[in-house]
Amino acid sequence: MKPRRYLLHHGRQLGTLLGMAGLVIIFWMLTPHFLTVSNLMNVAQQTSINAIIAVGMTFVIVTAGIDLSVGSIVAFSGVVLASALHAGVPLFLVLPIGLGVGLSCGLVNGILISLGRLPPFIATLGMMSVARGSALLFTHGRPVSGFSSDFRWLSTGEVVHVPAPVVLMVVVYGIAHFILTRTKLGRYTYAIGGNEEAAVLSGVNVRFYKTAVYGLCGMLCGLAAVVLTARLNSAQPIAGMMYELDAIAATVIGGTSLMGGEGSVLGTLIGALIMGVLRNGLNILGMSSFVQQIIIGSVIVVAVLGDMALKKTRK
Amino acid sequence: MITKRTSSMEHKRILDMRQIQKTFPGVVALDHVDFELRKGEVHVLLGENGAGKSTLVKILSGAYQKTDGRIFLNGGEVHIKNPRHARELGIGIIYQELNLVPHLSAAENIFLGREPVRASGVIDRKEMVRAAQEILDTLGVDIPSRLPVKDLGVAQKQMVEVAKALSLDARILIMDEPTSALTVHEIKELFATIRRLKRKGVSIVYISHRLEELFEIGDRVTVLRDGKKIGTQAVRDVTRSGLIRMMVDRELTEQYPKRKCRRGPEVLRVEGLTREGVLHQIGFSLHAGEVLGISGLLGSGRTELARALFGADRIDSGKIFIRGRLQNVRSPRHAIRTGIGLLAEDRKTQGLVLNLSVKDNICLPNLNRFSKLGVLSTKKEIAAVQPYIRELRIKTSDPRQKAVTLSGGNQQKVVMSKWLLSKADILIFDEPTRGIDVGSKVEIYQWMNRLTAEGAAVIMVSSELPEILGMSDRILVMRQGRIVDEMTREKATPEKILQSALGGNP
After folding, report:
1. Which residues of A touch B375 (CB under 8 A)?
2. In this predicted model, what pLDDT tens digit does every residue of B329-350 receive, in sequence order?
3. What pLDDT digit, counting tens, does each position of B119-140 carry?
4. Does B65 touch chain A (CB under 8 A)?
5. Is residue B296 part of a domain?
6. Cβ-nearest to B353 among A182, A199, A203
């Protein structure tokens, strides 16, 4: 592609990237503790869970859907896999269990939406409550804590000095980017979100692929649950509260339109990192979490405003 | 007779657009275009898609800002800042996509945002309904002003839009393809209303692709081509072929280049097809090498039949035989697998994913051919798509260009390429040339010839009689969900088709 077209094509991502660079520079000027290798690794690690969930959310939002149940699915997958660990299930089976629980919840969402024709908002709102309730019921409201160091390596371990969750996040994004840009599933995801009727009339099995997308989102919640449980050394049935909002925020800051049909996981990664950088930087500066909420909320709005302005000039 | 009426009063110029220029990044949409409008005239804007008609009226209605040029209204220069400003200046526009609030009544829509209020600040409903009725009466249309507009027909909704514009004292009314969704009868009513408006001194800018309408309702016509003005002429001084020549700058020897093809074996037979309340006992057969035209008024079940054959809508009973074998076409996916392709009625909402590229759209029904284990080969896709872009002459700089950026004619060619690439040999074309330019139209007809010559069968649903008569080998006429008549090309006349479509005494 010619440079100019490339700019137009990727202008949105570049904008987000510049936004993040700006933030980094601001924090760097404000505090010497921000721009250090160990702190940046810290940011990446803190971001990893939201970033992994936001990948699934991006797929869902590209189909013009929404998933409000991600936080609850994280909690439910977490307590199930934690209980499995306590019951002595070997480690190599625990990962599939965590992913499987998430996948099942996601598939139920998908089936309700594609076969039951429920609006995604309603179906996942229901799942949000059902999964949360299931998590509480499963553990009688108590956390499941204390695991082997082998399991905890998933959070504390390092691969060539890079924390394991960060490696996992990078791998997930690599695969997701490939799926979204290079596979049938990805193409259909855009087609369904861009114009569902046209996709149906082109012979796309819309029900199947929609269900698959929600399943994928659920499965990634299961993966996030594994990392979260390993990090906290505990699975809480009340974990993952408000995660859906963080995931939606990362997706939207990353330039994915809630109307569906456009967006990219790379944008979402930058979006998640922006939120991570903000939280971390504001923490270092000693800002209260109350102020942080205000700032993060403003960033979401400003990002979308900028997005809209950019689209207008492109027209 | 007409010359006598051209008094100085009627020649009064109320709008003068001079040397209007509009550029978008990389494109000159309008190149020094002059356009003037006289009091009480219907001035038709004509041109292929992408010629600049829409851009010109968007500048006039305040949706776009001109890059250069001057606009004079009643002799004084104006700078139209935005749509609201245009309304204040007395310029109203009726878009193809109607802008009404469905759950509000006609009266509420007409006065939306300007509701008459009593001293207490409460809306004066009585006064509102009375005023609305008064405007509707001057239009000579019978519309219940209290009913929610969602319960009105398309033509009635359009009249509500017109009424709304008039209630704002519009002296200039822009109508963009006002007849595209109307039935023959409704068009007659619309024209009656337009004539009434003319007598009241309202000037109308009329955009349409239908030449026959121009001769019926237009006073003058301005032809645009590639953003340039080709000329303005009185309608009585122009001929159909002359206009087409102005629009496309090439003599279209025949607008319907129909070629007879050898009729092959039966490829599709439908028996007793029924969808409750929509289609009743439909039966017909389709042979390789023929174009079967389906005519009928809007709402007669034409589109519904096309969708049912394609598996897009459920059917309640009936049998569909494809190449002699009974098939249960449950979904478009099954239909495509049995070799059926549907060029849907509305390319923007049904035919294309506008946000995807030209290539992605063409390949959408065919991804299995370009993927291994779900992984796509962009190289293969582009290689497969290139010949179609070339042969159908789709104007695009790159197969990866988004479909939304193409003109209507080119978009339609993209949809067509989808089915050519999927090697469909039973093609259902639902309004294949609606809203596209003359040049692209002819190209699409030529492709229909080529397809039938290669042994494909085509079903063409169309509300344009000349098209049905010009391109079909056989014609089915539908009315109220039934096939009421069948005739061969040789025996068909416009009168016969209309008579069957209308039913009873016309």
Report:
1. 182-184
2. 889 999 999 999 999 988 888 9
3. 888 888 899 999 898 888 888 7
4. no
5. yes
6. A199
Residue B48: exposed, middle, or buried by beta-carbon count in 10 A (0-12, 13-18, 19+)? buried
Give me the helices (H) in A32-90, please.
37-62, 70-86
Residue B286, domain member (yes or no): yes
Best mutation target among B330, B353, B417 (most A Cβ atoms within 10 Å) is B353
Listed in sequence order, the residues at least 6 apart from B54 whose beta carbon sits closer than 8 Å to its beta carbon are B176, B207
B81 and B223 part of one domain: yes
pLDDT tens readout for residues B43-92:
999 876 667 888 899 999 998 999 999 999 998 999 999 988 998 899 99
Residue where one domain finishes, among candidates B139, B169, B199: B169
Distance (Å, rounded) from C-alpha B294 to C-alpha B302? 7
| Chain B: closest CA distance from residue A184 (Å) | 5
CATH of the domain at A43: 1.10.3470
Same-domain status, B160 and B55: no
* Tens digit of each residue's pLDDT (9 = 90 or more) over B275-292: 998 899 999 999 999 999
Asked which of B169, B194, B222 is the last residue of a domain, the reply is B169
Q: Which helix (H) or strand (E) holds B31?
A: strand B27-38
Confidence of residue B1 (pLDDT cuts 50, 70, 90): very low
Sort out which chain A residues have CB atoms less than 8 A from B353's CB and list them: 190-191, 194-195, 198-199, 261
Gap between the Cα atoms of B108 and A161, Å rounded = 68
Residues ≥6 apart with Cβ < 8 Å to A175: none
- Of all helices (H) and strands (E), which one includes residue B73? strand B68-73
Instruction: Note whether B181 and B323 are same-domain residues.
Output: no
Does B164 share its domain with B175?
Answer: no
* Nearest CB to A184; choose among B312, B354, B367: B367
Q: Is the pLDDT of residue B229 over 80?
A: yes
Which residues, including other chains, have CB under 8 Å from residue B74's CB and lie 6 or more apart? B14
- Tell whether B135 is covered by a domain: yes
Q: What is the CATH number of the domain that holds B13?
A: 3.40.50.300
Q: What is the mean pLDDT of residues B153-158?
A: 81
Higher pLDDT pick, B96 / B166? B166
For chain A, positions 189-218, list CB contacts with chain B under 8 A.
190-191, 194-195, 197-205
B179 and B143 co-located in one domain:
no
- Whether residue A228 is contained in a domain is answered as yes
Domain span holding position A162: 14-309
Residue appearing with tokens 């950026």: B405
**B355 in reach of chain A (CB within 8 A):** yes
Q: Point out the least confidently predicted range of B32-46, B60-74, B151-165, B311-325.
A: B151-165
Q: E-strand spans in chain A?
A: 144-145, 158-159, 162-163, 234-235
Could you tell me if residue B350 is inside a domain?
no
Are B376 and A204 a contacting pair at CB < 8 A?
no
Q: Is residue A41 domain-resident?
A: yes
Rounded to a whole number, what is the distance in Å from the CA of A69 to chain B's nearest CA?
28
Identify the segments of chain A with pLDDT beneath 50.
1-2
Domain count, chain B: 3
- Model confidence over B348-361: pLDDT tens digits? 889 999 999 999 99
Range of the domain at B13: 2-90+171-248
- Residue B394 tokens, joined: 């789709």
**A4 in any annotated domain:** no
Could you tell me which chain B residue has the CA closest to the CA of A260? B355
Token duo for residue A293:
């909420």
- Whose tokens are 């906290």? That residue is A232
Closest alpha carbon within chain B to A190: B356
- A206 found inside a domain: yes
Domain count, chain A: 1
Task: Say whether the ipTM exceeds 0.95.
Answer: no
The whole-chain average pLDDT of chain B stands at: 87
Question: Rounded distance, CA B495 to CA B499, Å?
Answer: 6
SS3 B148: strand
